[in-house]
Design brief:
It is built from eight helices and three strands, in the order βαααααααββα. The chain is mainly alpha-helical. It is elongated, with a radius of gyration of 50 Å.
Length: 239
């Protein structure tokens, strides 16, 4: 099964900025012609198109508004009315010039005998060109059909592919985080238990010392009472 031909994405702004003169067009397309991407007829058509006056159509349309306004002006017109007519004719002339420029681009694209090869040449030039590719408008030619895309879309960059399934690095980070958390709690718990053990031992020792002291005091009182009773008994016997 044969591969489908590469569509030609013809960015009008980038084409006008890159192929702005005959010399620039020859310098850029000569390597592509030698590489076999651009045919001889398409090379000549591109060079002749770059040398044309189509980039000036919009400016010529705006400049022509001045004589048109002067020819339409009446002596009864006020200055604001004259200025309003001049602005309207200038905009109309500029839009007309842009329409003629677009028509010239469209005729050039339809004249290409190998649009797929020209598309490959444009892609190669864009990779090495310091001029960034601006947003539309873009004329797309796929086979014998030309489609105009007027949407102002910025060049799309491939977005990183995200996956819901955890990767190996995610699993390692999860295990490490769990281990780190458990180790921290274990360390705190062990330190707490260590701090409690001496406290319990000290408390038990203190209780034992208190009991021993109490018993000693009781023994002393008992001994003193026995001596007192003995003396008292002696006095009674003397009497």
């Amino acid at each position: 099964m044969a591969d489908s031909p590469k569509p030609l994405n013809y960015n009008l702004r980038w084409i006008e900025r890159t192929f702005g003169s005959r010399t620039a067009t020859e310098a850029l397309l000569t390597p592509e012609r030698d590489a076999g991407n651009v045919s001889h007829n398409d090379y000549n058509a591109a060079v002749n198109f770059a040398a044309g006056s189509y980039p000036y159509y919009r400016f010529l349309g705006g400049i022509l508004a001045i004589p048109v306004t002067l020819s339409l002006r009446r002596p009864s017109w006020t200055i604001p009315r004259t200025f309003g007519v001049l602005v309207a004719t200038t905009l109309a002339g500029s839009f007309g010039g842009q329409a003629m420029t677009f028509s010239a681009h469209l005729r050039f694209i339809r004249s290409l005998e190998d649009p797929s090869g020209f598309a490959q040449a444009i892609e190669n030039i864009q990779k090495n060109s310091p001029i960034p590719v601006p947003p539309g408008p873009v004329i797309v030619r796929a086979g014998n059909r030309s489609v105009f895309d007027s949407t102002e879309q910025s060049p799309t960059n491939p977005s990183p592919v995200t996956s819901n399934s955890p990767t190996k690095w995610d699993q390692i980070r999860t295990v490490n985080s769990h281990t780190s958390t458990n180790s921290s709690w274990d360390a705190l718990r062990q330190n707490h238990e260590r701090s409690r053990v001496p406290s319990s031992t000290t408390a038990s020792q203190s209780a034992d010392d208190t009991d021993a002291f109490q018993r000693s005091c009781d023994n002393d009182r008992a001994a003193e009472q026995a001596k007192f009773n003995e003396l008292l008994e002696r006095e009674r016997n003397i009497k």
